[in-house]
Amino acid sequence: MKMLKKPLPRVLLVSTLLLLVGVAALAGAGRHNGIVLSNDGRTAIATHPSSHVVAPPQVPAGLTLIAGNLSKYPFGVYFCCYGDTISGPDSVLGTTYWDAVPFTPTANITATKVQASVGWADGFNGATLSINADSNGLPGAALGSVDVTGLGQFGDCCTLAQAGGGSKGIPLTGGTQYWFVVSTDTASETTFDAWAFNSTDMRDYSFAFYSSSNGGWIATEGLLPGYAIYGQ
Fold it and tell me: Which of 61, 70, 145, 219 fits a 20 to 30 Å CA distance from 167?
């Protein structure tokens, strides 16, 4: 993680870079339902954000935040219009893209609810949310996963893909790294979604992405998408 002494220039720099990525996308990967892609396909930009804002969901009663970065702004839980591509092999992109964010609980706890700022763009409206073990600094086997459907439109604000909330959950060990993964499966092979960036932190963090063109998970750095993991 890179700490910054001058956040404002960093914000301006990131905004400029994202704008340049969007301009390149117009001549590169093309548009899909008002969304453009970076030339490598990994970044999605909504060109026509909605003027309608949905009230953010409340923090689940009785649960503790294990990890996350969703903001408390009433009209900006996350950055609606830029995010990481999530897609299946039969999507309009023709390539599978997944993303994963690492997190480390501070104490033993059972994860029972997850939220992600994932929005739908094209194809099957859904995604797979999972908590995975760590495998040499990259996502390993899924400890638990759930398919979610009926996602909000990418570019709208600020619905969340979420799952869980019951008594059952995934036991986590304090001080151990895990991964929160948004992916696709056989039910969502045509999916094209985008996992919108967190709106409040412009620092670079470590995360991982999967691309079928590379055939595996790859460590990288950048802005993190919005997420929250709760437990008890």
Answer: 70
